[in-house]
Amino acid sequence: MSEMIANLSLGFGVALSFQNIALCFVGCLVGTLIGVLPGVGPIATIAILLPITFGLDPTGALIMLAGIYYGAQYGGSTTAILVNIPGEATAVVTTLDGHQMAKQGRAGVALGTAALGSFFAGCVATVVIAALGAPLTKLALLFGPAEYFSLMVMGLCFAVVLARGSILKAFCMIMLGLLLSTVGTDLETGQERMTFGFPPLADGIDFAVMAMGVFGFAEVLRNLESPESRDVVRTKIGRLLPNWADIKQSIKPVLRGTVIGGTLGILPGNGAVLGPFASYTVEKKLAKDPSRFGKGAIEGVAGPESANNAGAQTAFIPLLTLGIPPNAVMALMVGAMTIHGIIPGPQVMTRNPDLFWGMIASMWLGNLMLLIINLPLIGLWVKLLQVPYRLMFPAILIFCCIGIYSVNNQPVDVAFTALFGLFGYILIKLGFEPAPMLLGFVLGRLMEEKLRQALIISRGSFYTFIDYEARPISLVLLIVAVAVLVIALLPSIAKKRDEVFTE
Amino acid sequence: MSVNSSQGGRGLRIRSPQDFAAGLFMAGIGVFAFVLASDLPVGSLRQIGPGMLPKSFATFCAILGVMLSLSALYYDGQRLEGWSWRGVIFVLGGALAFGLTIRGFEISGWIGKIASLFLIAAITTALVSVFLPRENVLFDLVGKSFGLLAVFASVCVLAFLSFWSFIPAVNVSIPQLGLVVAGPLVILVAGLAADDLRWKELLIFALVMSTACALLFKYALGLPIPLAPWLLGI
User: Fold this and answer.
1) Which of helix, strand or coil describes residue A224?
2) Do B54 and A191 touch (CB under 8 A)?
3) Largest CB tally within 10 Å, which of A197, A363, A487, B116?
4) Which positions ≥6 away from B115 have C-beta within 8 Å?
5) Which residue range(s) make up the domain with A432?
6) C-alpha distances in angstroms, A79 versus A22, A88, A278, B157, B223?
7) A171: closest CA among A423, A439, A420?
């Protein structure tokens, strides 16, 4: 306990420097600014804004990136409430009751409740991360290559099950991501793999190129096609702060949402996406009058929004302690960290305690910033939502182009990104959801490395992964992975899953 | 056998055109990757070679693709939508124009070969789309957009695998024009993709946005982006 407080105070010492407060503020602000744009989810937002962190030192860059991430999350909720367009899967639930509240002239209260609930959830999640960070990092030391491999297999299985759309298609995307990750020079033998002999491919496919192509360009192409039907709320925003009755109604949903979202967020493989859905279902079940849901019930905003934010933050735990990103957004964070020369994993905490605890402290700071930024600026976001898409997408595009050029100062990268944009567009047209591909791509190289190490240690025997005497953790992880897949494929559960994701 | 207008009746028919095409796509990628990785040694389990994982992933991709295509025969699913070529051409073309002009570009050697490969494939595809009758097996099977894409991809692959060394390289050199040109260029070209295009507005927006980006990225963030080396020397 005292250790945790000492660590946190170290972190706040770093985060509360003038420069870092300013970076956190700017990160939250621009994150919200881009995240608020309809059809731009957190993945696209981080991809677009990545280049503005390039000139900073690693700690500052990570603090800013975390700020961008929270800003994007909150911006997504704002769009969900005001325009009824969810930026990503987790904001879908917010549209149900949030947009109804907005239509009834209570947009301000919905946004205020979402902000306050998220702030509370963020505070709790920060403490949870600080508390679990050190012990989990010690646990990570028990992990050998076999355990890491099994953990990643489990994470990918979760990602398959929790992806939107058909399980088979999600499987395809993961496999494609893994396949793409093997392009480039083989680390052990130095042999070039599937590079066509082209020099720029020798280092493998650049992560930023792929993310910007598939989530920046392809999203633009997708949005250009759907005719614009923006249902921006025309009624007054109304007062922002919820009154006493609203608070009394939403306090329990916020608490429950925080617990649900925070717990699910720790799971490897995009558990965070389940949080808002689970919280909404729980609130609807517990409500005295379930018929109010879908017609502007404040519990339907407070619970899921808290769960969303708690999960968004606890998703950092597997990344920071084990070095394994649980979902596509965190995969993007891995890419961003690598660009700044930090390899996420247990060694970050021991080697760069400033950076680790500074980032955690900045999470709390970021949540506070969001509260300060968003409540007064809602009017500005509404204005921004009225900018027509014909101007919005060229702006997104020039940002992406400058960004992708700045990663390596290579014009060829821009051309590759365009190619990946086409690739992403084809995937979208074929009904694939590209997010799992990004996760598979990031985990691919790590998996290959760990698989090789594990098999060298075991002298070529696959038994090492299921050896219950020597490696019980690995066995348990693999059993969980198989169980999750089997359960998801059971007909009754599969039907439920479809319902959850189409709701 | 038509995909999008599923005929009734008995027997096997494609109930989910989108999944069917998606399966073919995955299987195609799997086979292509396997061919590319064919000369990589697999090694043994004790000492995994560079080819083991690429080949296994490629195999899995192909198997999953075939499964997806087969499942399309049993479950009803979505139709294949057409493409908006306008968006693809102008948005991606705008990005390409940015890449070519920002720091200048020497199209020669292997890049020149790729350029001419794409050019050959694009011309072939355009010819096919003009001269192929509207009713044909390919378009019936996967729709016009994906049919043309398939033509483009197969010309590329065939040319690459069979007469790559005979393809002449394009030789063009584009001067280093900097953000002053590349910025407005990407916005103007991409802006053409919008259905509700307004020229004046787009022109003003392109100038304002490029100035803002130059100030933000070059001066506020200090990224080494050439502004206009030919004019200002920076």
Assistant:
1) helix
2) no
3) A363
4) B107, B169, B170
5) 2-502
6) 25, 11, 21, 43, 31
7) A439
Separation between Cα atoms, residue B30 and residue A3, nearest integer Å: 51
Q: B139-196: per-residue pLDDT in tens?
A: 777 777 888 888 888 888 888 878 778 888 888 888 888 899 999 999 999 999 888 8
CB neighbour class for A141 (10 Å; exposed up to 12, middle 13-18, buried from 19):
exposed
Going residue by residue through chain B, which has 234 residues, state the pLDDT in tens, using 9 for 90 and above: 444 544 444 456 778 888 988 999 999 999 999 998 888 888 888 888 888 899 999 999 999 999 999 988 888 888 887 778 888 889 999 999 998 888 888 887 778 888 888 888 889 988 888 888 877 777 777 777 888 888 888 888 888 878 778 888 888 888 888 899 999 999 999 999 888 888 899 999 999 999 999 888 888 777 888 888 888 777
Do B50 and A189 lie within an 8 Å CB cutoff? yes
Amino acid at site B66: V
CB distance A183 to A388 below 8 Å: no
Using the predicted structure, report yes or no on whether residue A387 has a pLDDT greater than 60. yes
Q: Report the run of H or E that residue A185 belongs to, with start and end.
A: strand A184-185
Count: domains in chain A: 1
Phi-psi category of residue B76: left, alpha or beta, with phi > 0 → left and psi -120 to 50 → alpha? beta
CA distance A442 to A268: 14
3-state secondary structure A152-172: HHHHHHHHHHHCCCCHHHHHH
Q: Which of A397, A429, A459 sits opposite B46 (nearest CB)?
A: A459
The band of A337, judged by pLDDT with boundaries at 50, 70 and 90, is: confident
- Give the whole-angstrom CA distance, residue B167 versus residue B153: 17
ipTM score of the complex? 0.89
Residue-level pLDDT at A230: 63
Determine whether the interchain pair A224/B145 forms a contact, defined as Cβ–Cβ distance below 8 Å: no
User: Cα B17 from chain centroid?
Assistant: 21
CB–CB of B187/B210 below 8 Å? Answer: yes
Q: Could A414 and B40 be called an inter-chain contact, meaning their C-beta atoms sit closer than 8 Å? A: no
Residue A282 one-letter amino acid: V
Which among B65, B78, B186 has the least Cβ separation from residue A172?
B65
Tokens representing residue B138 in the block = 């390919």
> Cα dihedral angle (A47, A48, A52, A56), rounded to 10 degrees?
0
pLDDT in tens, A177-194: 999 999 988 877 888 888
Q: Check pLDDT > 80 for residue A362.
A: yes
Chain B contact set for A414 (CB, 8 A): 95-96, 98-99, 102
Residue B37 and residue A193: Cβ atoms within 8 Å? yes
Looking at the DSSP bridge assignments, the partners of residue A184 are A193
Secondary structure in 3-state letters for B52-73: HHHHHHHHHHHHHHHHHHHHCC
Q: Which of A179, A429, A456 sits opposite B58 (nearest CB)?
A: A179
- State chain A's mean pLDDT as an integer: 83
Supply the pLDDT for residue B6: 44
Rounded Cα gap, residues A1 and B9, in angstroms: 71
Task: For B202, name the nearest residue in chain A, comparing CA atoms only.
Answer: A391
Structure tokens at A459: 């002298």
B25 burial type by CB count under 10 A (0-12 exposed, 13-18 middle, 19+ buried): buried
How close, in Å, is residue B133 to chain A by CA atoms?
A: 24
Give the count of beta carbons closer than 10 Å to the beta carbon of residue A502: 9
Interface probe for B, chosen from A429, A443, A452 (most Cβ of B below 10 Å), is A429
Q: How many other CB atoms sit within 10 Å of the CB of residue A282?
A: 19
- Planar angle of CA A232, A235, A237, nearest 5 degrees: 90
Which backbone phi and psi does A374 adopt, to 5 degrees?
-75, -40
